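Forum: Protein Structure Q&A
Topic: Joint prediction for protein chains with partners

I've read a bunch of threads here and the consensus seems to be that you should model interacting components together rather than docking separate models afterwards. I'd like to see that in practice. Below is the full input, 1104 residues plus whatever partners are listed. Could one of the regulars post the assembled result?
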Amino acid sequence: MYAQPMNNSLNPLDSEAIRNDFSILKGESDLPLIYLDSAATSQTPDCVIEAMDAYYRTYNSNIHRGIYRISEEATAKHEEARQRIGRFINARRPSQIIFTRNTTESINLVAYSWGSANLREGDEILVTVMEHHSNLLPWQLLSQRTGAKLRFIEITDEGVLQLDGLDELLTERTKIVAMTHVSNVLGTVNPVQELIAAAHDVGAKVLIDGAQSVPHFNVDVQGLDCDFLAFSGHKMCGPTGIGILYGKSDLLEEMPPFLGGGSMIRSVQRESSTYADVPAKFEAGTPAIAEAIGLAAAVDYLNKVGLEAIFVHEQELLEYAHQKLNEIEDITIYGPKPRQKTGAITFNLEGIHPHDLAGVLDTVGVAVRAGHHCAQPLMQKYGVIATVRASFYLYNKLEEIDTLHDGLLKAQRMLTRRRR
Amino acid sequence: MYAQPMNNSLNPLDSEAIRNDFSILKGESDLPLIYLDSAATSQTPDCVIEAMDAYYRTYNSNIHRGIYRISEEATAKHEEARQRIGRFINARRPSQIIFTRNTTESINLVAYSWGSANLREGDEILVTVMEHHSNLLPWQLLSQRTGAKLRFIEITDEGVLQLDGLDELLTERTKIVAMTHVSNVLGTVNPVQELIAAAHDVGAKVLIDGAQSVPHFNVDVQGLDCDFLAFSGHKMCGPTGIGILYGKSDLLEEMPPFLGGGSMIRSVQRESSTYADVPAKFEAGTPAIAEAIGLAAAVDYLNKVGLEAIFVHEQELLEYAHQKLNEIEDITIYGPKPRQKTGAITFNLEGIHPHDLAGVLDTVGVAVRAGHHCAQPLMQKYGVIATVRASFYLYNKLEEIDTLHDGLLKAQRMLTRRRR
Amino acid sequence: MNIYEEDILDHYENPSNYGTLEDPDISYEEDNPLCGDQIRMDLQVEDGIITKLRFCGHGCTISLAAASMLTEEVKGKHLDEVKQLNKDDMLDMLGIPLGPVRLKCGLLALKVLKAGAYGLKCWPGEEDEETE
Amino acid sequence: MNIYEEDILDHYENPSNYGTLEDPDISYEEDNPLCGDQIRMDLQVEDGIITKLRFCGHGCTISLAAASMLTEEVKGKHLDEVKQLNKDDMLDMLGIPLGPVRLKCGLLALKVLKAGAYGLKCWPGEEDEETE
Ligand SMILES: Cc1ncc(COP(=O)(O)O)c(C=O)c1O
Ligand SMILES: Cc1ncc(COP(=O)(O)O)c(C=O)c1O
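Posted by a regular:
Agreed with the consensus. Here's the joint model:
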């Protein structure tokens, strides 16, 4: 699971100082921004914005094959970014880090390239009921292309994986297990390490959706021994437009290309071509250069603050949020208790539509997400259409949870009258 | 072809004033940057950088489904960007504009989605010998998946398409013609309008690779009647990490999805899903939000300067470049004369490796590209392995061509001694 | 301006024409899959004139208030007039600014009503606008 | 520091050990597909010692000068010593800083020589470095 035990002698994170690193949190609008939607996208510290600006203002140029100063500088910075991001998740080699647009594209890359080459009718793909659509749709589409069958690990009412009977689901037919490390709705931290070992025992590969874990605690790909890990820059203080696919070298090397185009080739003839080595093989066309550089700056920033300190801070926010929200009448909180989860608290108030909760909260400056959170199978399991989710990150403060609490009471006063 | 006739009473473009819009061109390094590599990637005006900064610093948030102020603002700005970009190429509807990472991904999207659904063994895909790898590899891969055959339109020694005998190549078997509007190596402007009409006559669809045309002159998708148009933000004063696929609505609507994930769905069940309408169907996952907003700012900037003025300015630079470079002994210039082309001049000096030319030019501050320019079949046609390309854009000045010229003479002095 | 104006809350609390009709001439139902809001409209029509109508369903304040306001507006009108109603008319009735997400809520009732008046292919708010 | 140092140009102009051997013990050739540079190395070896060697091919100043310098360096050395040579050794011989593209030119000759000394899987400059 996540890096435990937490070092309790750790310096607590100074969220006031951290907020100073984010222009958006210092905004001078009439209402302060109480941003509780970091699970959707995180805010971007100024140092990340500045790293990208520096690219555009001083060495903007296409990378690879450019024989002049700024292109050499851009190429070096781009590849250095790959190194730093690789180190962040403890990848053995930078060539295991493939730049994509986001988690979604990373997962699709695996489903198209590895999936189409390795899956046949009769094979099975194992996912969980709590997957984000981005870790479900690519496998649905793959299953339609190949005839492989999708199977699901259920969850308990508390929102943790139902692992009794796993033997039935995880068998020699299972070719890949695709599962989220952390639920974007419930915050549940899944026991991926154990599941990876169990999957390897039956010869299955494992893709971990790290969109909600990599930003929040130390994820060590060698420690976990996962075959693939996908995550997004924009959820970890980085820019939009960049995501990562990590893969084991032997897998990446034998996988066929996905997108064809410039930079992914070794040599091109009219009818056929040979392909470059990884990572270039999977990076066709001009990459998101500024964004890779921005993501490396974000990684540096997170390292500077310290992932452990961030994790401890989020646990504190979560505990307080559970305590305050539990005081509210007619609230249903979904998912496990703090300590078994991270990052988010998801709930509904009896008789009030989640849209209206979010709408009323917006009037007091609180930004939360209301909807199905791209997790309809999970919503179906709980028999709801939508929920409200408040999610936290390093810059949030306990006082913001008070405002959330008061905003929810305001919504109740306004909207819980005598509606049928 | 391109918007003709040029209005000659047009105010000439003030390249000194324009250079002031680009921080990178005002840099205070010892050597001025003489940037002649805009065909690889263009420089980014400050207004584009600032538009993205404003997103990150004041309304950074995930779009769609967010019920709070900054998310509503981000959503509105993102969709407004789609509108403005659509208007730039005269698309009828914003929903015809699909955001991708770059030209390469746009073309792959069509090859995977439209291609896999429509091509069979015995069908043919028609491309030209001057395609960028990004408009060749996706079709090679498609042909390997489907058994459809790739055919090639040859070029003449002058570097224009060989259209006698087109009847042989363009037949009822042709399902799609994929061709570049402008060659990234030779600058040749292809007669796409005529070819589109001819393709439609035999029932073929046409994808135009607009990577080198959309930045340089007015491309009107309704006027051309192309079925698809692909282009990249980073070649038209926009940021990295964003590209566009334009498609005709009926085609886009009937195409199956490409990447699966969040935002591209209407409703998700465990085993299967229904998909959102275009453009959402093709935009899985969190998009490159800042980059879309940046690209819209670039489009506004190009509109402000005026595409016609840019085109006229580039023609002037090209004429002068041809004149000056033709003065050099032992030079071979590839491709057609100015007036039949745009943007770039490609050449070799007898006995000097293109890498060395680029290397020596770098010592005098001139940035050019040396290599196969991701167009190996074209290099093979000319029997060379690499060339040097100087390419121009709105911020270049005639004097810069003098420096290019002098740099080439310097290279000759240094390197043409008595090498075998 | 706040989307939780008293007027909206009144309609949400005490909706007009809430319920169903026994034997409607037209009945149409639709949901917004993104948020699960669902509205059904039952109409009684004589010579093209809507003589009676009821709506039911579930949803947020905006979608329910919009439905309530819309039923008040169109009662006694000809179906041809209903076909002419557009997004701006509905926003005028609501009298509040709506962000892109809530717009879909605000237009759900109109969509259902127009779809009832004749087959409709796409959301009123999503009719593909021309770029110019 | 300029990559067109006199020393580089001298080697480019008057390369040492340019040519081929009649009956080499080891002969290996490789190209850099990105720029078309091509180098062949012919070696005569006695008891593991390189007694004679020649290179030929075509390429840019950097790849040819590197080849020339490298042949001077390894003549008379044992193949085991050749196997130990790495990127930094080659860069030391060249004595100039190289950007990422020219690095491939600068390392081509070394790649060919080492591939000759024993099978090599990847470019010397591209040996996957550890991230830490
Ligand atoms: C004609 C042409 N097509 C396609 C591309 C690929 O563009 P991108 O690398 O932005 O995907 C380029 C860029 O070099 C080009 O010039
Ligand atoms: C668990 C999980 N997986 C995947 C995604 C998709 O990420 P992106 O939209 O950046 O591709 C998200 C983002 O919401 C997520 O939370």
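Chain D touches chain A at residues 33-34, 99-102, 122, 126, 128-132 (CB under 8 Å).
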